[in-house]
Amino acid sequence: MHSSRLTRRQMLRAGVVASGATLVAACTPNVVKETVEVKQTVVVKEEVEVTSVVEKQVTTVVEKEVVVTATPGPGECEMDWTPTFPEPFKKYDPPVEVNIVLGERYDSLPENGPYNKYNNPMYNRILEHTDVRYMSKWEPAGDPAADSQKLNTAIASGDPPDMWQASGTFLQELIDFGALAEFKEIWEATASPLVKEKKGYPDHYAWKQVLQDGKLYGIPMQSGPADNDDIGFIRQDWLDKVGMKMPETIDDITEVARAWKKAGICEYGIAASKQLVTWMVDLAPVLGAYGHMPGAWVEDGAGGLTYDSLSDGVKQALAQIRSWYAEGLMDPDFITYDPYPGGYQSVSSEKCGIWFSPFWNYNIDLNVNEKIPEFLQVIMPYPKGPEGKQGRWATMSWGAPVIFRAGLDPVVIEALINNLNWQTEFHANWEKYQQYGAFDHDTAFLEGWDWAFDENCEVVIGPYPGTWHCVEFGWNNNPGYPSQQYDIYAPAFKWMNEPDKTKLNKAQRYLVSSKANQRSVEGFNYSYETQAVQIVNQFWGTPGPKMTERLPDLKTLEDTVFLNIIVGNDPIERFDEFVQEWKANGGDDITAEVSAWYRSINS
Amino acid sequence: MIAENSLGDRLFTIFLYLMMALLAFLCVAPFIHVISLSLSSNAAIKMGAVGLWPVDFHTQNYQFVLKEPQFMRSFGVSVVRVVFGVSAMLIMTIMTAYPLSRDSVPMFGRTPFKMIMLFSGMFGGGLIPTYMAMRSLHLTNNFLVLILPGALAVFSVILVMNFFRGIPVELTEAAELDGASHWDILFRIFLPVSLPVLATISLFSAVGHWNSWFDGVIYMDEIRMWPLQSYLYARVTSQMIQKSGTAAGGTAERMGQSFNELTPEGLSTAMILVATIPILLVYPFLQRYFVKGLTLGSVKG
């Protein structure tokens, strides 16, 4: 009798065949790649214990696959620029060694290559010019939870790295427990005037978290006001299809989405993700159009602060979003979407054509043009609300400060500050030093790696672009000051607007010829120029006891109520009940606490 | 036996089959989705267009994974870890379970020893003391840290001990009459009849070793020493962060070249699949002992 049962032997045989097939398939030659030019940038901001706000700028540059047919021989082409470096601020002999959590995974590079983790262009650059030799205490998993566990374990067992980053409650605990080095004297004597100016020492609010009782415990790593704030985007090709002009108001947005839906261009129109205000694909500028921003503490007119989620403007905005939802102009699944990939994909899969994201998201079309050639993303002005207001959430710019372990040799701290001096000088004046790798998060910009000469001796992308990132100041690959991105993009903006490109050198021409780079600079410029619409959260202190105890529950209440109002489970009047509930359940205490703090810092 | 050939019975059977098929499908659907993602193109994944079938079929993800030195290195660490880890566990467990199971043979401190073992099986020391202990034993950044702490699994000892107790006492008595030593009894009688329970604890241990990721992350400072699951965990959970400008700056642009046709999602899924195959292959060998061993050990004694 023929048995149809799969025996163990047969199953194993099938497994082996399948594995073999996978191997064979995996070893098939590369498909010739089409010419694509894509820049994808994602910023992840997560609340974690170690770094209360970790801002991670993620950049994948997928540039042109260059086919060089008649490559000039060695020496036939010449660089028409000369990279130089700032002078060292102080020499240390021998170089100081610093144990850090070294994030670079250089060991994933081709084995037997010329370079390794402790010998590569960027590492050597820092060693040579600042005499700091960064050693890897350990390599991070890249997952905030696992990494903070490892860090906590190391600290608790008395074996922390020499420097790391922390903020918020964790930072305060480290200070209180005496786990950190105090270095105000060294800082004041060593930090260059440029660093102090760029980092706004000591007046910029980010310093308040590390300057306590006249002592200094860390160096804030700030970001800029335009770096991560939302701007609006719209599909120009869809606007053209329905013959409508660029929307300027909330009502215009409604009309456009309605027209698209009616014409069958897309399923919904307006993209969102499960939080109204988050790091990308959110609705912050819609709320801003009503002059208010959930989650922000704003001045109450009496010297204190008030929680903006309770304002009438937020209620109006919720009513508007609710009507979009009811009319089917928003993706109904948005309540399940994380900003990425859910929110992102509601745009990239052509369900929606209006969304709000930071400038580095000005590239969704470039990512999918291969499949949807007509997809054209353009910047949409901040929509105006009924009273003509515009607004966006202002991303805080204080990052997580770099801190040093207690007992670290003062000479090492001094050397690290000199490292920061050098780095800041390098970044702020990259045009002068002709260091074009600074444009893209500081790559080495090496011939044969990042770029190569083509047959016309023009600079084109190289075989291993961006391989050499730097270990510059700790593991933070930039000096971290508010105008850093501006300093990087301003020269590029100038070159892009130069009508006669022959006046530029080859490297400059290469940088500005990339569509992705053009978009980055254009998007940043827009974000920078429109800072006036920022709605700034005025609370940036360490959370007080009431806030620590009550705010998480109140935030959950807020999120739940707002979502239920939007999806129609609750009437809009629920908002008024929410305000009373919020106040009664500890909200008033928090407001008093926050206001007292605000008055104290302003007195 | 009642004949089940009425129309109602047959319809009910069909219904049951359909329900079971649906449930089975629901179980494998995520796995199929993972396979599809690993074989789909960058643009399709970015658009969220991949369901249960690959879109724009390609195998670059697998090419990349199989050429990724660290992936293969971690794969090797995991294989070695499973082989030595399971072997060490078997030796330790058998050696511990045998004397504890021979109640008829007097042994000094048998009960306190059992209590200590039971206590340590129920209450752990906590991460930080354990970490400090490992560090003072010079086991951090040492391959042995992946094997030694788990070599004596109390649960397995109890299982094997109870299984040994279930072996008819006449067998050991007969052997002893013939002059057999403890070694003879253990190797010639106990072990041959205990294959089900040994297969069971081996499978537990092998799967445990293969899937363990946390010890690699905590005890190993260098990624090159990580076992496969630690590496996968880092790759998969931080699929965006790994390209970040702060946490692991540089990898982004390094990946940029490889990512011409690849996405983190596609790569992660390919890695997950490649990592799943070996442990899947272990199951058929041991499956038939599995249930038998587990129940036998637990009800006898």
Fold and architecture overview:
The complex is a heterodimer of chains A (603) and B (301). Chain A has helices spanning 8-26, 121-130, 144-156, 168-176, 184-190, 193-198, 236-242, 250-262, 284-288, 312-327, 339-348, 364-368, 410-428, 430-433, 484-496, 506-513, 515-529, 545-566, 574-602, and strands at 38-46, 54-62, 96-101, 132-138, 163-165, 211-212, 215-216, 218-219, 230-235, 269-270, 297-299, 305-307, 352-358, 377-380, 392-393, 402-404, 451-453, 459-461, 534-535. With 603 residues, chain A is of the alpha+beta class. Chain A has 2 domains: 38-224 and 398-532, D-Maltodextrin-Binding Protein, domain 2, CATH 3.40.190; 230-393 and 543-602, D-Maltodextrin-Binding Protein, domain 2. Residues 22-70 of chain A have low confidence and may be disordered. Chain B is mostly helical. In chain B, helix 3 crosses helix 14 (264-299), helix 7 runs parallel beside helix 14 and helix 10 (195-211) packs antiparallel against helix 14. The longest helix of chain B has 36 residues, at 264-299. The interface between A and B is large, with 81 and 64 residues.
